[in-house]
C-alpha cells in the first residue's frame, strides 16, 4: 500500500479488492450515474452537523453509526471520491482523520477520471454492518479560535482558501488568498503536477518550512488544501475547523472592504 494520501485511478484499480471505497456524492448520483465497483455511499450531508452549524464535525456517535452502517472498520484502508475535484471527499477524509482513522486516501481526479478509464457499477454492494471504534488521532491538525488569534502575531502563514471576491470582502488580517481550485487541473480534475503546485504555493509564501494555518467558511475547502499539502509532504499544517463561521461569531478581527 502507498503512504501517499492521494492515489491515482490506476492505483485504485490495482488495489480495489484491498481497500474500502467511499463515494460521498448524493444517492441519486451513486445509483443513477454509477459508481466505482464495490463502493459504498456516504453522502456529504450525512457527515456534516445540521443547518446553522455546517462547519462542525458530526460528533463521534453519529460518525460511528455512519461507518458501521457502511461496513467500514477502524483499520480499513479507505479511498474516498466525489465528482467535484475531490473537495467533498477530502472533507470526508479529514473528518475520518480527526476521529482517529489512519489509512486514508483521496482518489485523484474524482469519479469522472475513474469513469473515463474503468468500468462503473449501478447496483449497490451488499454490506455487512461493522463494528467501528473512534480513536484519538496520534496527531491532530485541529486548532481553535485562540490558537488562530495568537497565530496572527506570529510568523505563521495564514491561508484563506476561498475565492478572491470573498477574501476581498473580509479576511483574517495578514492572510494570503489561495483559492483551493488553483491547485486543481481542469482537464484531469485532479491535482496539478507537484512542481506546478509547489510553484503556486511558493509564490504565496506557503512553503514546507513555514507553519501553515488554513481556514475558509465552514472547513470544506480547506480540507482539499490540507490533503494537497499532506500529499506534498508539508508537516506543520493547522486546520481551523471553526473557520470564518466561528471567527465572526466570536468577534475575531477582520480586514477587507466590508469592514473598512
Automatic annotation (TrEMBL):
What's one GO MF term for it? Answer: thiosulfate-cyanide sulfurtransferase activity
Instruction: Kindly name one Pfam family recorded for this protein.
Output: Rhodanese
Keywords for the protein's UniProt record, in alphabetical order: Repeat, Transferase
What does the entry give for GO biological process? tricarboxylic acid cycle
Q: Which domain of life is it from?
A: Archaea
Tell whether Isomerase is among the UniProt keywords: no
GO CC annotations, alphabetized:
membrane
Residue stretches making up the Rhodanese domain = 15-123, 152-256
What is the protein name for this chain? Sulfurtransferase
Which species does this protein come from?
Answer: Haloplanus rubicundus
Amino acid at each position: 500500500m502507498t503512504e501517499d494520501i492521494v492515489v491515482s485511478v490506476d492505483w485504485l484499480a490495482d488495489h480495489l479488492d484491498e481497500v474500502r471505497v467511499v463515494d460521498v456524492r448524493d444517492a441519486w448520483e451513486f445509483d443513477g450515474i454509477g459508481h466505482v465497483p464495490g463502493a459504498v455511499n456516504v453522502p456529504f450531508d450525512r457527515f456534516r452537523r445540521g443547518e446553522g452549524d455546517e462547519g462542525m464535525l458530526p460528533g463521534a456517535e453519529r460518525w460511528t453509526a455512519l461507518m458501521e452502517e457502511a461496513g467500514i472498520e477502524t483499520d480499513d484502508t479507505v479511498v474516498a471520491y466525489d465528482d467535484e475535484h475531490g473537495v467533498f471527499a477530502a472533507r470526508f477524509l479529514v473528518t475520518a482523520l480527526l476521529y482517529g482513522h489512519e489509512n486514508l486516501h483521496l482518489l485523484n481526479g474524482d469519479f469522472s477520471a475513474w469513469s473515463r478509464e474503468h468500468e462503473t457499477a449501478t447496483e449497490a454492494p451488499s454490506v455487512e454492518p461493522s463494528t467501528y471504534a473512534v480513536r484519538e488521532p496520534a496527531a491532530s491538525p485541529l486548532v481553535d479560535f485562540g490558537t488562530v488569534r495568537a497565530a496572527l502575531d506570529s510568523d505563521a502563514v495564514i491561508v484563506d482558501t476561498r475565492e478572491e471576491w470573498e477574501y476581498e470582502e473580509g479576511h483574517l488580517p495578514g492572510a494570503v488568498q489561495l483559492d483551493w481550485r488553483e491547485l486543481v487541473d481542469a482537464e484531469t480534475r485532479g491535482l496539478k503536477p507537484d512542481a506546478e503546485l509547489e510553484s503556486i504555493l511558493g509564490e504565496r509564501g506557503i512553503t514546507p518550512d513555514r507553519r501553515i494555518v488554513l481556514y475558509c467558511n465552514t472547513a470544506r475547502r480547506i480540507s482539499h488544501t490540507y490533503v494537497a499539502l499532506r500529499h506534498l509532504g508539508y508537516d506543520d499544517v493547522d486546520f481551523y475547523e471553526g473557520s470564518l463561521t466561528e471567527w465572526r461569531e466570536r468577534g475575531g478581527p477582520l480586514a477587507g472592504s466590508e469592514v473598512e
